[in-house]
């Protein structure tokens, strides 16, 4: 499975680079037609299907074009024969947010499956920690 884990790692790194570049084709590549995504902004019930997933990206690209970052800080991958998951922390913030909160991270979880011998993202979940209440630490 190490080869599959490396393939998935490469897929995720290409996706993150495409997000950072505002490259819609690259963002959509390697995603299942029936993708389900839960994102930071609404809708609360998430989006379902590649067309709904595509529609979420233009506002993000506009925000990012103002100098925001989107880069993987850490990435872990586990793969079986037909299903895999990955989780990552990303630096995703405006220039001002990075300066004010340099340790703030976007959390990313991906569920992948093999379709016709290739890995595709079937589930994507983005979240930020809730900083409105003090942490227990």
UniProtKB/TrEMBL annotation:
Database matches in SUPFAM superfamilies: NTF2-like
InterPro entries per record: NTF2-like_dom_sf, SnoaL-like, Steroid_delta5-4_isomerase
Domain annotation SnoaL-like: ranges: 8-130
Residue ranges the record marks as coiled coil: none
Domain of life of the organism encoding this protein: Bacteria
Protein name stated in the entry: Uncharacterized protein (TIGR02246 family)
Organism: Nocardiopsis composta
């Amino acid at each position: 499975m190490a080869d599959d884990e490396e393939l998935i790692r490469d897929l995720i790194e290409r996706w993150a680079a495409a997000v950072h570049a505002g490259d819609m084709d690259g963002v959509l590549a390697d995603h299942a037609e029936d993708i389900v995504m839960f994102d930071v902004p609404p809708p609360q019930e998430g989006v379902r299907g590649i067309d709904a997933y595509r529609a979420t990206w233009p506002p993000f690209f506009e925000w990012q074009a103002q100098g925001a970052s989107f880069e993987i800080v850490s990435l872990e991958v586990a793969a079986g024969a037909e299903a895999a998951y990955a989780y990552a922390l990303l630096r995703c913030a405006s220039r001002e947010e990075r300066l004010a909160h340099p340790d703030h991270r976007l959390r990313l979880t991906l569920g992948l499956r093999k379709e016709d011998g290739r890995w595709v993202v079937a589930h994507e979940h983005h979240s930020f920690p809730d900083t409105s209440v003090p942490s227990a630490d």
